[in-house]
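in:
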């Protein structure tokens, strides 16, 4: 039996400073290396108790600790990463909820609170960015040491911010106060004012986390079962090694040479552990500054890198457990854990991502904007993906979105690939691409249809009476294209527009408010058409019905009503 280090989940709203806080603790720059400056995968950082004692030496007193340290799990803050946050929150023993002290509780903060409620995870609030409050910008070290040295008015301003935050937390069902004012930590959530940028207040946060873990979590941190159990965070190709899996071991001992069950692209498989590697303390498992250290075994809790023997295709996000005992039940448990809630559409885009969590997030984000998805899978873009996308009926569905994965094959011309490492950039790019495709289709459709137009034959602007008649018109509404048939207000057809000119320039189309010259065959000015006449596009009944489904402007819809009223003088049911 041993006491493992507690797993600390770091949660909160996007850009409130979660990764920056861990950067300050480990003295690294992981936040700067994230795509778009935003965490999109779960990461792990181990902080030994010796380092915590060193950082907190001025405020920690003579406290002794049994825990070997803290293992931080950094989770994404953007709202689409719900499943990743839940996965990180569900394995956490205690959590840090990072909140911008100026902005307070935001949408993803509320979601994080729901995760913490759901898993009954105790947490501490890191009230970040106090350096942006006047009087605190140059502060360093522990908050507790500075309380009596700060100008009263500036401290009042901070306390007002913290009071507002406490009120917001109260409305969410939590009683909270500044940590140094709390006497019963079982009834109140501790708020630690700090700056991830300068490190001010970080010693206080580490002290509170270590103290709470030591006081309230010792029983659940006792590890008596040596059966290895954990979660695959990410799978990547490592030069000279092949496919490796970054993971969190949250229970038991994992040993080199033993066999574990986990999810692969070919189902649940028993894989032999060929190698185990650990990042150095204070390094970060996703993006370490130093090489991993090979080890023969690792005790929970720890962030590790595993090299499995044999087939690859391990699915990121899937649990793993030592292959022992009732393997059938264990296999079913793992299968349930990696099942996706995604329900494919008969028609829709193809979505590919590098991890299970990333794929879930992508599906969620696209679902929020009602993008149909035919197929969603983990892995690089393949020839089969192009084939699946090309069979869609609608051109705007012939798209593959590749979230942080490579395109391994040459494409098919009618299929567009949208690649990005930032999920909401993919969403924006996808929406833009679909709109472009729809617009192009609409333009093609418009070329074969007669659209609503109303124009005035301008007085004193007859340039040729006939063969062809050339005269000036003002577009009163809608748009006039070449070949558009025109009619008078009595419904009589007067022929098609042969050409449109503005000065010396030939036009394909004229829009509302423009004055242009048009040419028409088969008419004579003064007979079929007179100066001052109002003309309409002569829309056929079929086109009229189709146009009802188009997104027309207010003016175009008014002209449609006028055309229908003209036609119904001779046919009461026209256009119904």
């Amino acid at each position: 039996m041993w006491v493992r280090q507690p797993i600390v989940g770091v949660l909160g709203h996007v850009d409130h400073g979660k990764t920056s806080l861990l950067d300050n603790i480990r003295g690294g720059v992981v936040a700067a290396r994230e795509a778009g400056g935003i965490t999109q995968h779960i990461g792990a950082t181990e902080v030994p108790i010796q380092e915590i004692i060193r950082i907190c030496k001025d405020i920690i007193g003579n406290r002794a600790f049994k825990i070997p340290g803290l293992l931080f799990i950094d989770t994404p803050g953007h709202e689409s990463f719900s499943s990743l946050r839940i996965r990180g929150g569900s394995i956490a023993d205690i959590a840090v909820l990072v909140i911008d002290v100026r902005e307070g509780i935001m949408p993803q903060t509320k979601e994080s609170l729901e995760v913490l409620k759901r898993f009954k995870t105790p947490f501490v609030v890191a009230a970040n960015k106090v350096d942006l409050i006047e009087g605190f910008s140059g502060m360093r070290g522990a908050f507790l040491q500075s309380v009596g040295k700060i100008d009263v008015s500036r401290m009042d301003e901070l306390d007002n911010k913290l009071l507002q935050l406490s009120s917001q937390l109260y409305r969410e069902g939590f009683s909270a106060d500044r940590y140094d004012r709390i006497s019963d930590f079982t009834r109140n959530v501790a708020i630690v004012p700090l700056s991830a940028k300068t490190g001010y207040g970080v010693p206080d946060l580490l002290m509170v986390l270590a103290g709470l873990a030591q006081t309230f979590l010792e029983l659940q941190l006792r590890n008596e079962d040596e059966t290895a159990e954990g979660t695959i965070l990410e799978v990547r190709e490592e030069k000279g090694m092949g496919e490796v899996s970054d993971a969190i071991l949250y229970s038991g001992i994992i040993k080199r040479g033993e066999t574990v069950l986990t999810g692969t692209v070919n189902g649940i498989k028993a894989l032999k552990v060929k190698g185990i590697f650990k990042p150095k303390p204070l390094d970060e498992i996703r993006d370490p500054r130093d090489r991993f250290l090979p080890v023969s075994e690792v005790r929970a809790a720890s962030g590790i890198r595993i090299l499995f023997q044999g087939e690859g295709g391990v699915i990121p996000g899937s649990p793993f457990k030592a292959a022992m005992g009732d393997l059938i039940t264990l296999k079913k448990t793992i299968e349930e854990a990696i099942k996706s809630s995604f329900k494919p559409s008969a028609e829709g885009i193809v979505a590919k991502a590098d991890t299970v969590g990333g794929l879930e997030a992508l599906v969620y984000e696209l679902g929020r904007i009602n993008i149909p998805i035919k197929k969603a899978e983990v892995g690089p873009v393949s020839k089969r993906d192009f084939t699946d996308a090309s069979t869609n009926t609608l051109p705007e569905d012939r798209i593959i979105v590749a979230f942080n994965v490579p395109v391994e094959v040459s494409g098919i011309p009618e299929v567009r690939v949208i690649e990005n490492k930032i999920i909401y950039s993919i969403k924006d790019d996808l929406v833009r691409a679909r709109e472009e495709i729809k617009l192009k289709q609409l333009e093609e459709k418009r070329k074969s249809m007669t659209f609503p137009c109303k124009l005035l034959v301008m007085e004193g602007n007859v340039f040729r009476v006939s063969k062809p008649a050339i005269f000036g018109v003002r577009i009163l509404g809608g748009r006039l294209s070449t070949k558009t048939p025109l009619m008078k207000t009595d419904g009589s057809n007067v022929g098609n527009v042969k050409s449109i000119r503005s000065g010396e320039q030939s036009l394909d189309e004229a829009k509302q408010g423009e004055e242009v010259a048009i040419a028409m065959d088969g008419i004579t000015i003064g007979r079929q058409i007179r100066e001052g006449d109002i003309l309409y596009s002569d829309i056929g009944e079929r086109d009229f019905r189709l146009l009802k489904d188009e997104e027309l402007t207010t003016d175009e819809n008014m002209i449609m009503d006028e055309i229908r009223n003209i036609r119904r003088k001779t046919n009461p049911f026209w256009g119904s």
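note: Confidence is low (pLDDT under 50) at residues 77-86.
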